[in-house]
Amino acid sequence: MLAVSADGRSVRQLASGLARPTGAWAEADGSLLIADENGNAVGRLHPDGTLEQVASLPIPDDVVADSNGNIFVAAIGDNAIHVISAQNNQDIVLVGGLIDPQGIIFDADGNLIVTDSGNHQLIKILIH
């Protein structure tokens, strides 16, 4: 992963050892959550540069986290949305039966919007 300065004049490496990072989410403490598709993992890049594996998932494509620290992952490998609980780090399939879920984001009310690309639709997952 590379960081580019705002003026585009300098580039520095943030992390190495990732197989195919496809999605990232900035956490409040400055850490980055990273969906690593070919690595079948979700990682956390801490501000000090250490990379921690948070979860092992089948082809994770995108990742977001809520204000409570719960991590939501769109995984292409099992066509599901996973939630990794902040309470006990348990991985739960929140929604299955999708086809190639790729993009995931929160709406203004804190619900998830997911691109279910294989079904040619956006879906809303009511969280709050």
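Above is the first protein from milestone M3; the second protein from the same milestone is given next.
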Amino acid sequence: MDRPWGKWSVLYENSDNTTKVKRLVVNPNSSLSRQKHASRNELWHVVEGRGIVELYRNTNFRLEAHSMIEIPAGGWHKLINDSDEELVIIEIQYGDTCDEEDIERQEDDADEVE
């Protein structure tokens, strides 16, 4: 799905909706909204590019190619591409349910929400 911040696509989804794999492409100098998920965890693997994950509003993690980070259920997080190149991430969602309706967002200065 195309968004102003980039695009995402589902690569895999199991039948009971407890696991989903997505490919995220974040445009240069763009970000997603600050968000959290009640029923799922996310594991992100950086395929290309670099950026920052803001976790719980007070901790920033630098992402580089081949780095990984786990986003726990209930953890506020924001993905930021602060570079001039695309940031490509493989996102593995797992938990009780992997629905898009599980997203709670905070207002911030993101380009567009997921």
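Note on the second protein: Residues 5 and 23 are 14 Å apart (CA to CA).
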